Amino acid sequence: MPWAVGGLRLGRAWVSAPDPAALRARWAALTGAEGPERDRLFRPTRTRTPTTGAAALPGQRSPSTARFADAPGPCPDPVRVLRDPFDEQWLLPDQRLIDTARPELWRVLDEHQLFAVETPELLVTAHLPAGRLGRIRPLHRRPGGAEPNLAPGLLPLLGERYGGWVTPQDVLCWILAAGRPGPRGYEVPLTGDPERWRAGLELGHRLLTVQLRGGPGAEPPRLPGGRRPYVRSAVQGWPHGLGYDEQTGTLSLGSGTVSPVPPGAWEYEVQGGTRVLEAWFAARSAHRDPGAEGLEALGPAEWPQAWTSELLALVTTLALLADLAPERAAFTPGPLLSAGALAAAGVLPPPRWSRRPASVLDHQEEGPGGQFALL
Description:
By secondary structure, the chain is an alpha+beta fold. It is built from 10 helices and 15 strands.
């Protein structure tokens, strides 16, 4: 996947939140303020201030491309993003508010797109990754899945070697099964054995289905009946902590409880030993932290019921990934395709153009102040 893009740098935490209503409240508070108070709430950086002009984000209905200080416009509809590993939140899609928005990613964001995110454990998401997660590699270089972000010649070579049609998503599934972090980044060995290829595809497809929670239009995967988590007691008020009883497999949020929650889901860690469930809960309690101030302190007063539903889905995802972890750790690609064979087929090294974004402009994009962007 030659084309890779650095992560979005938001520059100010208040432009994203787990609750879309909180983002609309923050927009209203910011646009209702004036003078120094608006500047204080905005949290200016060297890249973005209320007087900085910016283009509309591709594919988004920007409220305005005038300077924010002159014409904020109506609140843009929040969009779903991957804010942290396995944590889907919401973002205000206004480039005037985002330090580095990566417009090239927004141009290829559609229902066909998947993004591979290089963390110690490779993440795949259908949502735009928006945070310091790692380098982002889109599966497709153009909207509509028209051109794969793969080294030219790779798909025909693999099809010939393995005796069948190979799709870009097949390669992504193989990466999930066989790829490992290495000293030069995420390294993906390619097998020379068709049987190992098919075994890797089967494992990778299961991993992809779990990470995507089924994917667009598909039913999310579930745990077997006896292991399926349910709300045993509803969350009342605001839970002041997240706890886990390994003996009973019960996850507690204040007075609310969810069970059964397997130890593998509770102990699932990413990026330096951070438990995913604890990080997820901390993100939803951040606006109540004594140190929260300004727009970041605006959030729901009561625990939203939708968050409990999200928690059940997250527990299921982590439990299924924990179940698959031993199989993935034991998977080996067998005899490898050599770098020489890939070079002889013209696959390596990938051409320089394949490392850059494709030209995908089929319409004019509005630049700062209503001008058209020249790209």
